[in-house]
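The material for today's practical consists of a large collection of protein records. A record pairs a protein's sequence with a compact description of its fold. Instead of coordinates, the fold is spelled out as a row of discrete tokens. We will come back to this pairing of sequence and fold again and again. Here is such a record, shown just as it appears in the course material.
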Amino acid sequence: MDSLARSPERPVTADRRRYRAVLSYVGTEFRGWQIQRNAPRTVQAVLETALREFAGEPVRAVAAGRTDAGVHADGQVVHFDLPGGPDPGAVRDSVNALLPADARLREVREAAAGFHARRNALWKEYVYRWSRAPVIAPRDAPFVAPISRKAEAARMAAAAEFLTGRRDFGVFAVRSRDDDPVRTLHAVTIREEGAELTATFRGDAFLRGMVRSMCGLLADVARGRFPPERLREILETGDRRLLAQKAPAKGLTLARVEYPNERTALN
């Protein structure tokens, strides 16, 4: 895996074409997106292994965003360059045949040489799911976090109102000297359907651990452990002592990535 980690992204030339793909994966058995020396099973590692076998040479895959260990994706967008310009449908089908069962390319298309999955993204959308059901169906259990049957969507929605806008979200993130903590959250939407609660976050970019940290607080507010104003207090003070435990990774899914002039992710 180290050789994959050191492989640079090659420039697009006349004999190579750039592709962009919509990738779905179940994050349960992955140690996140990014290749890691001490965690061989990452999404990037298995995708680049499949692409290398298909292309007959190392291929670097660049994602719109790095999901953490255990986080899923329905609409992750990646770009990669392949020699010879094979048909996008053939790329999708051939690479899927080489991928493990918990990762699939849903769509592959040719892209402009300068297209960049991360830099060109307008916004990303994450969805977090909770269930108040006394018993969660086995087919849903890997993707839904349990929450008290007394959890109230209205309380969660009141707290979510404090999160939108452009501001420093560093208090919610894993500490990093490399990240600018200022982000824009365009919308946070809370929905209730039967026993399930969902929170949808649409933003220009997200810090590592940011959404799960916010979801931990939203869940505690919904349970009545904190008032909705706790979110505003944390943003105003930056006091990490006021944070709740992070929400479990399994409830979080990268749902969609939007680009200028067209929808790259499938609806």
User: Anything to note?
Assistant: The longest strand covers residues 72-83. Strands lie at 16-25, 62-63, 72-83, 103-110, 123-131, 145-146, 165-168, 182-193, 196-203, 252-258. The chain has two domains: 2-119, 123-256. The CA atoms of residues 159 and 228 lie 4 Å apart.
